[in-house]
Design goal:
Radius of gyration: 29 Å
Shape: elongated
Helix content: 55-70%
Order of helices and strands: HEEHEEHEHHHHHHHHHHHH
Structural class: alpha/beta
Distance between the termini: 63 Å
Largest sheet: 5 strands, mixed
Number of strands: 5
Strand content: 5-15%
Length: 279
């Protein structure tokens, strides 16, 4: 248990460094930081930093920075020994206590943290699977295998949404924004723009399907197949091409044939590329 190993010590500021993922949490606003720094310069660091064994700061990045600026040599620290996943959970919990974060910022934070949380969950699964394997070799009963399966099935996006008290839909939008327009996602996380506004801006800047197809031959091939499928499937759904054609005007039949020939022409251009039998 983490609580059993927890202890309070005054550690050297020079020996401490923030957790790599802790920097994702938005900083204090300038006015808040100025007031906080002034308080630390007068009274020193009052609240202990939360430190993982090895000098890794899980909660207390601003306190550490203020101590460095005010040339404080030692600060009170609450030392714990947590797994990688527990460390991330602690960072997330600390973020939820910061009331200045909006729902949009929490969604962007969840999207930013998701890769690290997923990686930690997989590592936890591997560890549990290893324990189960060892117990099996020794002929012991173990429930770690079942627990490991639960870890692997976990929906980290849903978990993060719950932990950060934000809707899963917003996290999903933020994740898409993080993937396709990370610079806009960073603005949402910093509180400089709204999630909806950033999503609209990202969509306006994205190429159209036609533009994508023109740049990517593989997508042109996929697009041609899809259009042919839709065209043929629509006639089957409406009762078959013969029955349907009887109800069409000559102009409509001409347009259908023209479109069909155009799509087939696109596909025929790919046959030499895909026909490996002649190579």
């Amino acid at each position: 248990m983490a609580a059993a190993t927890e202890r309070i010590e005054h550690l050297r500021v020079a020996d401490l460094k923030p957790h790599p993922e802790a920097d994702i949490v938005p900083r204090m606003r300038p006015d808040e930081w100025a007031a906080f720094l002034c308080d630390v310069s007068r009274r020193g660091v009052q609240e202990p930093l939360l430190i993982q064994e090895g000098g890794i700061v899980l909660d207390g990045r601003h306190r550490l920075e203020a101590a460095e600026i005010t040339e404080t040599t030692r600060v009170p620290c609450r030392i714990v020994d947590l797994s990688a996943k527990e460390q991330l959970d602690t960072i997330i919990k600390a973020a939820t206590l910061r009331r200045h974060l909006s729902d949009d910022q929490r969604a962007a934070l969840a999207a930013k943290l998701q890769p690290a949380v997923s990686k930690a969950a997989v590592a936890e699964h591997s560890k549990l699977a290893g324990k189960a394997s060892g117990a099996s070799r020794r002929g012991e009963e173990s429930n770690t295998s079942a627990n490991g399966a639960d870890v692997l099935k976990r929906d980290t996006r849903k978990e993060l949404a719950q932990q950060l008290n934000v809707s899963e839909k917003k996290v999903r939008i933020a994740a898409a924004l993080q993937k396709h327009a990370p610079e806009l996602a960073a603005k949402v996380l910093a509180g400089d723009t709204k999630l909806a506004a950033a999503a609209r801006e990202a969509l306006n800047g994205m190429p159209t399907p036609k533009e994508v197809a023109e740049k990517d031959p593989a997508r042109r091939w996929s697009s041609s197949l899809h259009k042919l499928y839709v065209l043929m499937n629509s006639t089957r759904d409406l009762g078959g091409i013969k029955k349907l054609a009887r109800n069409w005007s000559p102009a409509a039949r001409k347009d259908y044939v023209k479109e069909l020939r155009r799509i087939i022409g696109e596909l025929e251009a790919w046959i030499p590329i895909l026909d490996f039998s002649k190579r």
